[in-house]
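Hey L., structure's done. Input below.
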Amino acid sequence: MSDDDIRALARAAGLAETWTDALGIPQQVSIASLHRILDALGFGTGSPADLEDSRRRLAPPGTLPPLVTMRAGSRLTLPARAGGAARGQLTYEDGGLATLRFSTRGDKLVGPALDRVGYHRLEFGDRQVTVAVAPTRCVTIEERAEGKHLWGVAAQIYSLRRSGDGGIGDATAVRQLAEGAARHGADAIALSPVHSLFTADSGRYGPYSPSSRLFFNPLFADPEIVFGPQRVAQHRREGEAFEQAPLVEWRPAAEAKLAVLRRLFDDFEAHDLATGTEVARDFEVFVREGGELLRGHALFEALHGKWLGSQPSLGFWRDWPPAFRQGPMQPNDPQMADFLSAAGPTVRFHQFLQWLAARSFEEAQKTAVGAGMKIGLISDLAIGMDRAGSHAWSRQSDLLLGLNIGAPPDEFNRAGQDWGLSGFSPQALVATGFEPFLATVRAAMRYAGGVRIDHIMGLQRLWLVPEGASAAEGAYLEYPLDDFLRLLAIESHRHGAVVIGEDLGTVPRGFRRRLTEAGIAGMDVMWFERNRGSFRTPARWRRDAVSMTTTHDLPTVAGWWRGNDIEVRGALGLAAEGEADARQTDRRRLWRAFAAAGTADGPAPAPEDTGPVVDAALGFVASSPAPLMLAPMEDLLGMIDQPNLPGTIDQHPNWRRRLEPRAAELFDDPVVARRAAAIVARRP
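Output:
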């Protein structure tokens, strides 16, 4: 086998042999890396026979895929190799019928133009295919704004305080924040991810490393929304001790909260389920609609608790006994059958937790919209899933389990990054009619008015690293961007949800234009809006992006001005030489930009005098032509510390800081109220 053979196979599999780094320098993926990645993709390269088999399986299929996408108004086009009759019968979603005629043009079968948006069934010869006809664009922020330039708040859910939250912010705190923000003209609340983590291991609380993106973190549920405060109070015996702490004490607070929820479930099972009350019927409908996906997740949670509880080394399902490693579809295995028989109540408990969380966030969105918000909640969709989690165990064929999502080496991370997350297999997406992707998008939009897609460049390509290799040994794998964008447009309209893409970092050429065409807003963050070092005036920021002062991974305005981020990273050995001097230069540049935009005057304040700088920054970003400006709560409060410090795990209190005052009173704070008014006045 020659190197050319391996490179040809890599191209056929959608792997990029070359890539351009952050400095614009072309780089080539090594043959050794291509071997490892191809093997992890399931395309063997160990022998000429393996290579030939891989070529055969990568050849264009002779049959139609289960789903094809198209844009409304265009002609339906199928591969000519699919063969079949010269006509087909289309059954629309509403039951209407149409006969379609096809003609052969080169390697394509071309049918008529279709303009009815939806998922329709085409019977073509002896085959069936779903035809997904998409609107031209997603629902846009401009459409929701109805002529206004909107503003909203970005908040970490766990950080929000309320009486009775047990030390972890929840959906009711979100409701209270939404009501307060709406009174000050806000139209959106952008939330940290609500994805399910690991109920049995509450020490794994990083929101961007979810066990599953299809389900909720039950610690964010408020059972009072379903059962009322009196009934819940009967079962609450612990948790209050954690409510005043400055940081979330994840393990003990989660254990206390889950203990309350378990007692509540036992009461629910003994009384409501036994007698068939209205809330019991709602639960049963929820479980039935959740189907096998919900059952698989609940079963994973039960198994994870069993094995982790008995042997802490068995936290990864790959280390479980063989009978339990292959996912939920093994009811005939005697060991699995015995477990299901004994663990039925535990499985139902985890379904119960998901029901409570779903009803909690459903009510939170209703509250936000009822308070007058044009968008309401904006959910956050993580880029991938933890390979030790629920989705990876229950839907193993969906994912590329031998490859981790990461980033190539750049000027900030010379070794590259390995995030330890799994992503979808492109082949599995096509083979399943994009069902895993659709389920994920629908989960993100179900109880929200918008969704922020983390690292949205992953819709076009992902940097994938073989498990056990260095991040620099990865390569980009191509994904079906056109299909993703069309499916997002359909689901955006069905849910009435806007779509925001986190397009920060190394962005493929032409990608932002594609987002604009698809009606997806990008993100403009003040720290990155520069021209040759100087800060770009807000008037020149994008009109199709959300504007922000900062993000959860970057310094707050007050922290940046003081240089707190440099001090913290310096103490951890993460700061670069000369950063403090460069920061002093940047302070002068930023203050000049504020003055030019009319949000500041006079000399620049001292590094310790952060209040005027925060005021100026919020007004500066609000002055942009963006259809939506998001103000992080940390900046509205003038906080010094950022929620997360990349490059650290236990060395820094990431994802733990709580806000003062309580969520219901945040906008009663005179400083917050003043800053909110200034933002409203600055929205063009």
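The CA atoms of residues 342 and 495 lie 39 Å apart. The mean pLDDT is 94.

-- N.
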